């Protein structure tokens, strides 16, 4: 779960990590009020969207006076911000963060993340922060220090010394580094973070270390013990169909440009089924995993979600019955078909537990579906159906 | 022969009194696995379908000489359950639970380093040695006893698909291991491959991977350097767009690493045969292992 920048910075403040003075606003007047409470211009106005890459998309502006602030904020509210991570449709800006400008001496990069390969907490730091950090990491790997911390042992003195060497801070700013790293590490562990990224972490002209930006992601599996943070969730940038699926306990991801809706039990088989659609000369419209033990109700919900996608012209349902019995699935499909009008061809592949019974139920329901047994048969049937649709 | 799960495996089920625990424990027993005890704090002294339930793993082991565990407890208690099993020196621990916080798994994984406990999972279908026994939720009947193929996979139903096709080609399995789809799992592809290489009954291996992480790339190098037995690989997710999460927490494509294309290239570069068509993987293996 991603936090907004203003939420992440509030978390930073509570853990003693310095951030610029500022406040969040939802209207131009609110933005002006925040500005008046600060110690004068220049100020930064930053669109509060979760999609990264917003600086390059025009979501960050510097203003020198109230007139400029009103103009910039007015333009920013309601703007469709298209960034490298937002998708082509972009996201609408509803809130902005108004912040005191900082007098910057240097921009560094600092991040903590979970390193799956070594089961450790990976701290990355570079004395050369900014928007091109990924490019830097690719072309000059040595320019980004990587320090791995065993979570059972925690942060040790030598970790701090390695990071200090990498950041090579001015002597006056250096003493602030160890407390900063300790605070961020504690925050990372205490709040079940999967990512804390500060880009840039700046050294100000008066030698303070200030987090100019803040990206925080919380482990979705840990929200049961992070309820305060869970309450900050903002789903406004999530596809409405994805939200509906989630409410039904399904894992659904909309894929743009595809026309074949898919419903599969199990994430791996779902991805492999998308690949089979590709082999049949078409493109999947979505990923939908109904889970290993899906109920008839969940399956009906899945079918409704697929059919509410206007781009879907063909359905491919692929179920390998294990815990999920095919007869149960078939009953779910029949029930759903009675509720929603199915106007597109449906290729249904049932295998495993009670597959024959499932196919019999579908046949007896008199539905114009195309049940198949094997995957090769399914691909052949998809090819035929895709051809008919063209 | 088989790896890790054999005739001597005697398992406790942690979370036996729950709906899933009870259902799958029954099916494991029906498949011939010795399920000797259940563990549910607060329910000690009771029994489920004739299997005695204890409050702690310690008591269960003392009373029944169990040497393995199958875990179904909810995510918030799962890390504790794994550690409890490990502290009581159970040699095989299979954790089915999905949704364990990743910070819990970081600590568990570090704790297990250098210990004798083998953890499979979490968020996995488990392990089956066809004809011998199973600790997991996979349907037993699609498997074919007698070997000679070992199967290792990050997935659940995708593994069933592959196994069913192997069985229909007359290719039996020694052991099938679902290592789980989470970012941090107890057993890696490489650990499984090494065990299959050392198992005399296993003559060939099928490895089923998917996008995200670099476990398949690392396995590719291991196969070339350390394995004499033929390996066929399948990678799911060739049509998955970059940057999309695909259900398994581990299946995240980022920074050009971990894509299906990168994995397939790495496997081929290291001399591993890659099957690109799931619909024909059974036949592909029959030819590759002939």
What does this protein look like?
Chain A has 390 residues and is of the alpha+beta class. Chain A folds into three domains: 1-20 and 103-237, ATP-grasp fold, B domain (D-amino Acid Aminotransferase, Chain A, domain 1, 2-Layer Sandwich); 21-101, ATP-grasp fold, A domain (Dna Ligase, domain 1); 240-389, Succinyl-CoA synthetase domains (Rossmann fold, 3-Layer(aba) Sandwich), CATH 3.40.50.261. Chain A is built from 13 helices and 18 strands. Chain A has helices spanning 5-14, 28-37, 66-76, 133-139, 157-167, 177-190, 227-230, 240-247, 267-279, 296-307, 326-339, 355-364, 375-389; strands at residues 22-25, 43-47, 60-63, 80-81, 91-92, 96-100, 104-115, 120-126, 145-149, 193-204, 209-211, 215-218, 251-254, 260-264, 286-289, 314-321, 346-352, 369-372. In chain A, the strands form five sheets. In chain A, strands 7, 8, 9, 10, 11 and 12 form a six-stranded antiparallel beta sheet that branches. In chain A, strands 1-6-2-3 form a four-stranded antiparallel beta sheet, with helices on one face. Chain A starts with a helix and ends with a helix. Chain B has 290 residues and is of the alpha/beta class. Chain B has two domains: 1-123, 3-Layer(aba) Sandwich (Rossmann fold), CATH 3.40.50; 138-290, 3-Layer(aba) Sandwich (Rossmann fold). Chain B has helices spanning 19-30, 57-64, 75-87, 102-112, 157-168, 189-198, 215-226, 260-269, 281-288; strands at residues 10-14, 34-39, 47-48, 51-54, 68-71, 92-95, 118-120, 126-129, 133-136, 148-153, 172-178, 204-210, 231-236, 273-274. The radius of gyration of chain B is 18 Å and the shape is globular. The chains are: A alpha+beta (390), B alpha/beta (290). At the A-B interface, helix 9 and helix 13 of A face helix 4 and helix 5 of B.
């Amino acid at each position: 779960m991603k936090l907004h920048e203003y939420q992440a910075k509030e978390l930073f403040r509570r853990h003693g990590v310095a951030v610029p003075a500022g406040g969040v606003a939802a209207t131009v007047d609110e933005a002006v009020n925040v500005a008046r409470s600060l110690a004068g211009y220049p100020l930064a106005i930053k669109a509060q969207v979760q999609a990264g890459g917003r600086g390059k998309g025009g979501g960050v502006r510097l203003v020198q006076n109230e007139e400029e602030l009103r103009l910039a904020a007015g333009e920013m509210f309601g703007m469709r911000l298209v960034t490298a991570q937002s998708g082509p449709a972009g996201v609408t800006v509803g809130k902005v963060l108004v912040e005191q400008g900082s007098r910057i001496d240097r921009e560094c990069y600092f991040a903590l993340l979970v390193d799956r390969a070594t089961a450790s907490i990976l701290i990355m730091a570079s004395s050369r922060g900014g928007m091109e950090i990924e490019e830097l990491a690719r072309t000059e790997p040595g320019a980004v220090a990587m320090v791995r911390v065993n979570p059972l042992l925690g942060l040790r003195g030598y970790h701090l010394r390695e990071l200090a060497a990498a950041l090579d801070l001015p002597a006056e700013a250096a003493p602030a580094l160890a407390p900063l790293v300790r605070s961020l590490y504690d925050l990372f562990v205490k709040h079940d973070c999967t990512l804390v990224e500060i880009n840039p972490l700046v050294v100000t002209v008066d030698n303070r270390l200030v987090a100019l930006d803040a990206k925080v992601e919380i482990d979705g599996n840990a929200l049961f013990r992070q309820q305060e943070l869970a309450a900050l969730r903002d789903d406004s940038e999530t596809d409405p169909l994805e939200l509906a699926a989630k409410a039904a306990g399904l894992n659904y991801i909309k894929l743009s440009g595809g026309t074949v809706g898919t419903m599969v039990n199990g994430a791996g088989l779902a991805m492999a089924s998308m690949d089979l659609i590709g082999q049949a000369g078409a493109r999947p419209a979505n990923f939908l995993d109904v889970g290993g033990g899906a109920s008839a109700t969940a399956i009906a919900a899945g079918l409704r979600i697929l059919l509410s996608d206007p781009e879907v012209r063909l359905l491919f349902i692929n179920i390998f019955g294990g815990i999920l019995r095919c007869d149960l699935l078939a009953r779910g499909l029949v029930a759903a078909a009675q509720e929603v009008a199915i106007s597109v061809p449906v290729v249904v592949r049932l295998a495993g537990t009670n597959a024959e019974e499932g196919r019999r139920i579908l046949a007896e329901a008199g539905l114009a579906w195309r049940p198949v047994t094997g995957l090769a048969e399914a691909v052949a049937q998809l090819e035929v159906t895709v051809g008919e649709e063209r | 022969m088989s790896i890790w799960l054999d005739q001597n495996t005697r398992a406790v089920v942690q979370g036996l009194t729950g709906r899933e625990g009870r259902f799958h424990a029954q099916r494991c027993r029906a498949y011939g696995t010795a399920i000797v005890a259940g563990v549910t704090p607060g329910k000690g002294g009771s029994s489920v379908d004739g299997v005695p339930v204890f409050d702690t793993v310690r008591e269960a082991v003392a009373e029944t000489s169990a040497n393995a565990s199958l875990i179904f407890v909810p995510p918030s208690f799962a890390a504790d359950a794994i550690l409890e099993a490990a502290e009581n020196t159970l040699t095989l621990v299979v954790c089915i639970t999905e949704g364990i916080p990743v910070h819990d798994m970081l600590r568990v994984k570090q704790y297990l380093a250098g210990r004798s406990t083998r953890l499979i999972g979490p968020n996995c279908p488990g392990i089956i040695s066809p004809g011998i026994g199973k600790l997991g939720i996979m349907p037993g009947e699609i498997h074919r006893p007698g070997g000679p193929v070992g199967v290792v996979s990050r997935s659940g139903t995708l593994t069933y698909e592959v196994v069913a096709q192997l069985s229909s080609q007359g290719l039996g399995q020694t052991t099938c291991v679902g290592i789980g789809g989470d970012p941090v799992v107890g057993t890696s592809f490489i650990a499984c491959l090494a065990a299959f290489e050392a198992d005399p009954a296993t003559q060939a291996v099928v490895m089923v991977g998917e996008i995200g992480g670099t476990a398949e790339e690392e396995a590719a190098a291991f196969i070339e350097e350390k394995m004499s037995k033929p390996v066929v690989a399948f990678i799911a997710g060739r049509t998955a767009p970059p940057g999309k999460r695909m259900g398994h927490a581990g299946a995240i494509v980022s920074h050009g690493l971990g894509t299906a294309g990168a994995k397939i290239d790495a496997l081929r570069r290291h001399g591993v045969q890659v099957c690109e068509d799931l619909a024909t993987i059974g036949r592909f293996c029959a030819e590759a292992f002939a």
